[in-house]
Amino acid sequence: VQLQASGGGLVQAGDSLRLSCAASGRRFSRYAVGWFRQAPGKERELVAGISWSGGSTDYADSVKGRFTISRDNAKQTVYLQMNSLKTEDTAVYYCGAGATMGSIMTDDILYWGKGTLVTVSS
User: Least CB-packed of 20, 80, 88, 115 within 10 Å?
Assistant: First the structure.
């Protein structure tokens, strides 16, 4: 499975962005997927995760109520809708696929995509 994240950019605080994680590979729909981010000087953190079916999702406390993760297995794409962006959301965002939601939550990632930069200005 190969993953490619896209959709990042420069926005102002309060704006919205939608990130996409496009996958190639026949078994993509069997994997849970997470969106992670890494800000300068900080460790990578899990932002949101979604199960293979889309029936289960989880979010970091810092983004609950503002970010929504979803997936379209027919299009082999996972999305991260980010609303009410804050300057502290500035980071490189990565998507990663793992065997289960538990794998996502424990950073047991099988496949990583290249990141996309999100910059939120005040």
Answer: 88
Residue-wise pLDDT tens digits, 36-91:
999 999 999 999 999 999 999 999 999 999 999 999 999 999 999 999 999 999 99
> CA angle, 61 as apex, 6 and 10 as ends, to 5°?
30
Taking the C-alpha atoms of residue 117 and residue 38, their distance in angstroms, rounded to an integer, is 10
Question: Rounded to whole angstroms, how far apart are CA atoms 17 and 100?
Answer: 26
Residue 120 structure tokens: 């939120």
- What amino acid occupies position 34? G
For residues 90 and 8, give the distance between their C-alpha atoms in angstroms, rounded to a whole number: 10
